[in-house]
Design brief:
Elements (H helix, E strand, L loop, with lengths): L1 H20 L4 H19 L18 H14 L2 H12 L1
Organism: Paraburkholderia piptadeniae
Protein name: General substrate transporter
Main location: membrane
Length: 91
Amino acid sequence: MSVSLFGGTTPLVAAWLVDRTGNQMMPAYYLMGASLIGIVSVIALRETAGKPLPGSGPSVGTHAEALAVLRQASKRVNVKKAYLAVVKERA
């Protein structure tokens, strides 16, 4: 969406800026401002490499670890009751 909003309107905005100011360098200033916004955005982002994403399932390294995660999950949720509740809602 941002590409269509900013990329598609850039020639129009650049022509308007030159027309309003009479300064042929206004498109360059416009691009510098957009670049500054991008740089600030990138600096403000937190690094998420090596961390699970919010809402994603657990990641495991071994088969035994996967089994342990499944055992813990099955203790928390009664799968049969959950399945029957879904079937009952759809009926």
